[in-house]
Amino acid sequence: MKLADARALVPGLAVADAMPEADGQALAALAGWCTRYSPWTATDGEDGIRLEITGCAHLFGGEAGIVADMARRLHAFGVGARGAIADTPAAAWGWARFRPRKAGPILKAGDTASLLSLPAMALRLEPESLETLATLGLDTVRSVADLPRGPLTRRLGDTVLGRLDRMFGRTAEPISPHIPADPWVTRLIFAEPIGRREDIDAAAERLLAHLCREMGRKGQGARRLNLAFYRVDGEVRHIGVGTSHPSHTPAHIMRLFAERLDTVDPGFGIEAMVLEATETQPLTAEQTGFSVSGEMDMAALAGLIDRLQNRLGRSRVLRLLPVESHLPERAERREPAVPRRKGRKVSSSFKVAPIPTIERHSGESRNPVINLRDRGPMDSGFRRNDEDKEGGAEKPRKPLSAWIPPEPPFEKALRPLRLLPDPEPVQATALVPDDPPLVFQWQGRQHRIRVADGPERIGPEWWRPEAEKGSLRRPRDYYRVEDEEGRRFWLYREGLYGAQEEPRWFLHGFFA
Amino acid sequence: MKPCTFSLPDGSAVRIADLLPTNLLNGMALSACVGTGAAEIDAALPWGGLPRGLHEIAAPAGDPAKAAFAASLAARRSGDGGRPILWCRPGWVARQAGDPYGPGIAALGLSPDTLILVEAAKPADLLWAMEEGAKTRGLAAVVAEGVTPDLIASRRLQLAAETGDGLVLLLPFGRQKVPSTASTRWFLRSLPSQPEAGGPGLPRWGIELWRCRGGGRLGEWIVEWDDAALSLSMVSQLVDRPLAETGRDIDGSAGPEGAGSRRHTTDGDQQKGEEIRPLRRHEAG
C-alpha cells in the first residue's frame, strides 16, 4: 500500500521510517532481558524471541505462570507480545502467531490435532511456497501433512517437509543462544586468612598464571587489571594496573602489581583475592626469544614504559610530538609515551608521521612574520622562511619528517637545545632600540654579551583565540646571544618600542 | 695462574691474551662502545669510546653543554634503528634549566621521536626509573639530571647498566665531590665561540676527562660541535698526560691539579651552592 493511500484511509496516520538495524538491536536487548527466564535464549527472525524453558518453568509457577509473568512485564514495558509454549520451537512459532482466538498460549504436549488445524502459514514458509500451496487449495497444516511425502517434495522442494518435521518434532531445531563472553575473573579463597607479603605475592602469582593461561588460550591480552582483596573485617581493597599494549605474560603483569602490593594493608588478614582483567584486547602474533643484543626489544620497552607509568603516573612519562607552529613554546606537544610496533614504513619505530610540505607552507604563508617583514629588520629567521618556501615549491609533495632540521645552508641550530617552559623575565640593556642587548641580569648574575645574532621576529598567532590575551598578543624579537663566558642564550624582547606598553625582555632558552 | 698459550706451527707459543683486543679482556665488547665524536678523545679512553655503564658528565649550573654532549652521545648510540632514550629529571630542573626542546635537539642528531621524558619528584623515584631503564635492553641511553646518586646507588646503576647493556649518563650541576663508581667522569663548560657573520659561531666546549677507570689518558680538549658532520672538531688540546693517579679512584680527591681545573673546581662549588638555592622569580611587570 502506498503511503498516500494509507493516509487517505486513516487521516492522521503516524508515519515512521523503518529502522531494521535499530529494531534488531532492540530485539537483541529484549532477548538479553529474557535470559531472566532461561539462559537458553535467542532471537528468532525479525520479530521473535525463543526460549528453551525446559526445567525453568517451575521457578515461575509452571508454564502458565511463566507466560503470564512475561506478558505482564512486557506489557509494563509497552511491548506488545504474543507468547506460546509448545513442544518444538517451530510449533511454538506457529502457535504464537496463528492460533485460534479462543485458544490459550500453551499447547499441551502431544496435542497434534490443534497444530494440524492451524493455517498453512504457520509452517513458516517462503511466500512463493505459500502461493503454490494456496493455488493447490492446501490451506491448513493438516492438508499439507496428509499429502504423501514423495510427491510433496517433488512439487514443492524439501523445505515444506523440513518445516513439517520440525513442527512435529521429527527433526531437531536447536537454539543457539547468544551467551555473553565470560568476564576474565579468577578468584582464590583462603582456608586461613593471609597477611604476609610473601603469601600475597604467591597468591597473586597463582591468580595471574591462571588468568594469563586462559587469556592466552583465547588469544586475548589484558590492558587493564584489577586485583581485589577481601579482608576479614569486611573491607575490600583494590589495586589496578594498566598496560600499554595487550599482555598475557604473568611476569610482566606481576612486576606491575609488585609496585602496588606494598600499598595494600592486609588488616587482620585477607580471606579472598579476585583478579579481573577489566579490559582486554586481541593479542597480535609476536615472535619471541630471537632478540639479538642491541636490537630494539619492543616487549622489554613496553614493559619499561608500563612500569614507569604505573609508578610515576601516565602524564610523567612523555614523548615529544612536533606541532606546526612558529611560536617556540607551541612547536612541540607532549603526550604519554606509547611503544610503537616495528615494521612501519618509517625506519624508526619512534618516527613521527611526516607532515606534508604543502600544508606547512600554506600555514606559513599566513604567518604574520611575512606581513611584518617590511617593518622588521632582515635576519636569518626571515631568510630561512623564504628559502624554505622556495625549496618547498620545487618539491611540493615530498613529505618531510617534521623534526628533520632545515636543509643546508641553514643547518645552523636556530632553535635552542633547552627551552624554559615559562620564559623568564630578565633585565636587559640595549644601546639602541631594536639592537641586541649589551648586558642582561638573570638570577642575580650579570651577563655581558659578546656577540649576538638577530632579531628573528615572531608575531602572535592572531588567528587563534588565545592570542588575544596575555603575553601572546605582542610580537617578539628573538636574539641568539653569547656572553663573555661562552654561554649561549635565547633572549627575546616582547613588544615594540613606541607602543603603549613598554617592551620587556625574557630569557627563553639555552643553546648548546 | 699460568697464562693460556697457543702453539703456532713454527713451534713458538703466544699468549692467547695477546691475541685478543684489550677491550674483550675488560669484559667490554667493542661494539658496545659509543664514540665521543672526536678521534683524539676516543683515543684517550681505554675502550676507544664510552663503554656501557655509568658515566658522569658535569657542567656548571645553567650550562647546557653537558646536555648537548650527552644528547650527541645518546644519538650516536641510538643509531638508525631509533633506539629510545630515557631522559629523567625532576620538575624543578625543567623549570630552572629548561627541558630538552624537540626542534633544538634535532640539530644534535638526536631524533626527538626517540626521546622519552620521565619526570619524578622524589630522588628515590628518579633513581628507580633510571635503574629500570638501565636494566632494559633496547634503550640507547638513560640520561639523568638533578639527582646525585650516592656510592651505593651509583654501584647499583653501574650493575644495572652492565646487565642491560645500557649507557647511563649522569648530568650533575657543578663538579661533583661525592665518590662515584662511574667509569668516566667529565667536566664540560661552554667557551666563547668563533663569531660567524656577526653572530655566535659553532658551539665551542671545553671537555675535561678528569677520572677514568681502566687507565685512560686524562686531559682537557677544546672542541667545536660540527652540526653538519654531527661530530666534534678539535680546536686545541690543553692538558695531556698519562695518568698514574688513575688508581686513586673512589675517594674523590684525585682531580687533576692543573691551574685551569682548580679554577673550575671552585667554580663547581659555587655552582653547587646555586643549585640548592630556590629559583628567584622576578617580578613580572
Task: Give a description of the structure.
The complex is a heterodimer of chains A (512) and B (285). In chain A, 31% of the residues lie in helices and 24% in strands. Chain A has 15 helices and 14 strands. Chain A has helices at residues 3-9, 20-34, 62-77, 89-98, 112-116, 127-135, 141-145, 149-156, 158-167, 197-217, 250-261, 298-312, 357-365, 368-371, 380-394; strands spanning 41-44, 48-51, 184-194, 220-231, 236-247, 270-282, 317-322, 332-336, 418-430, 437-442, 445-458, 476-483, 488-494, 504-511. Mean pLDDT of chain A is 79; it is low at 287-295, 341-400 and 405-413. In chain B, strand 11 and strand 12 form a beta hairpin. The radius of gyration of chain B is 20 Å and the shape is globular. Chain B is of the alpha/beta class and 285 residues long. Chains A and B meet through helix 12, strand 7, strand 9, strand 11 and strand 12 of A and helix 4, helix 5, strand 5, helix 6 and strand 6 of B.
The coarse silhouette of chain A is: elongated
Envelope shape of chain B: globular
Proportion of helical residues of chain B: 25-40%
What Rg of chain A, in angstroms, do the CA atoms define? 38 Å
What spatial order of strands do you see in the largest sheet of chain A? 9-10-11-12-13-14
Sheet with the most strands of chain A? 6 strands, antiparallel, barrel
Number of helices of chain B: 9
Greatest contact between two chains: A-B, 73 and 71 residues
Low-confidence stretches of chain B: 21-31, 240-285
Overall mean pLDDT score of chain A? 79
Strand content of chain A: 15-25%
Q: Identify the strand order in the major beta sheet of chain B.
A: 6-4-7-8-3-9-10-11-12
| Residues in helix, % of chain A | 25-40%
How many strand units of chain A? 14
| Radius of gyration of chain B, CA atoms, in whole angstroms | 20 Å
